[in-house]
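Reading group handout, session on sequence-to-structure problems. Before we discuss, look at one worked example. The prompt was deliberately terse, the way you'd type it at a terminal:

> structure Putative esterase [Lactobacillus casei subsp. casei ATCC 393]

The input record follows.
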Amino acid sequence: MNYEDYFAAIMTNINNSGFPVIYPEPITKSTMIPTRDNVNLATTIYTPTAIGQFPTIVQRGCYAEQAPLNDLLGKEFAKRGLAYVFQFCRGIGPSEGVWEPKVHERSDGKDLVD
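And the output record:
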């Protein structure tokens, strides 16, 4: 399956999810969030264009190539009333630090949520 077909399949599933689009294009904010040992991790936050609190999906990932997919998910979730936060792991994409599988995930994830 090529990338376009993959995205189309995801959009079909999202559109058939029972969560209708209720907001226009979301607010998107990219920022660097520091960890307890001062490594800045690239984080993108997608929120609906309304004031209030929203259920939030938090995801971290180690595949920079998935940035377009993360962007699609963030926008589509936010248009349906969910906030979406995506953070690249250390050393991945624009995040600082060195990628060491399964070494910092727990503490970095806790730092993101706290």
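Points for discussion. First: The first strand starts at residue 27 and ends at 34. Second: The CA atoms of residues 30 and 69 lie 15 Å apart.
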